[in-house]
Amino acid sequence: MSEQVFDPVFNVAGKTVVLTGGCGLIGRAIVEALHQRGAKLVIADVEAADPEAFAASFGDSCIGVPTDVADANSVAQLLSKTLEHFGQVDVLINNHHAKPKGFLEGQAENFPEELWDHVLDVNLKGTFLTCRDFGSQMLKQGAGSVINMASTYGVVSSNPALYEDNQMGNPVAYSASKGGVIMLTQYLGCYWASRGVRVNCITPHGVWNHHEEAFENRFSAMSPMKRMMKAEEIVGSVLYLASDASSYSTGSNVLVEGGWTAW
Ligand SMILES: NC(=O)c1ccc[n+]([C@@H]2O[C@H](COP(=O)([O-])OP(=O)(O)OC[C@H]3O[C@@H](n4cnc5c(N)ncnc54)[C@H](O)[C@@H]3O)[C@@H](O)[C@H]2O)c1
Predict the structure, then answer these.
(1) What is the pLDDT of residues 75-100, one digit of tens each?
(2) Alpha-carbon distance 208 to 221, whole Å?
(3) Most buried residue among 32, 121, 134, 166 by CB atoms closer than 10 A?
């Protein structure tokens, strides 16, 4: 009988991974998976999410750092705390996104300017700031992998029919910010390609989170796979991009969306 083989190409053990939005739905699934595989983790999230308390449940290999990614000083502090604690950074995962009050209510034709500013500040500027500071550190090291969480709504438009009989929605600012995240990824992926720093993104879609039945049914009917995604189904793409398995990938967008953009 042949022995089971552990393929080191997907190995993340011992790597220092900084994860923004680490206390959220997808963030928690990523933390769990990377911790189980021996990564050292820096969980960055807003103070209200209490990343320190969340990190404490994973022991010494994990720290939590309250961070506002839209604030350049806060991002600089996140980098210095990461280096102070772990000495280097191998992987940055930009997984944060903003859902300010009233986020789902405005229609494009009357979407409030302050909500637009907030969403773009966190989703797009915040991703730029972390890429800039952590990318700069990775360039000094001569190696690193940046993973930006995009969305199908940065690739294709949302279909208003999905939201006709339910309370869900997709605001114009979200789509615009995620389109920006994908182009930022392509730009930096090419810009840093010859200096050892890879930048890629992941495009998830429709992660199940106790949604109302009307939305789940309508989503499933419109999806090639006829179901929503489970949060843990993001893990394979994260392991791929965080490890040597993706050593020849940069500026790419890994679609984890059940075929949503394929028809
Ligand atoms: N859930 C989905 O169906 C879905 C689909 C496509 C893409 N995505 C993307 O995946 C990522 C994670 O989504 P999720 O569903 O886990 O979202 P979530 O709302 O559960 O988590 C987002 C996290 O970001 C944090 N955050 C908000 N503002 C921040 C700031 N200024 N600084 C630092 N952290 C901040 C929040 O506190 C929260 O913990 C997001 O980028 C989202 O756009 C999610």
Answers:
(1) 999 999 999 999 999 999 999 999 99
(2) 14
(3) 134
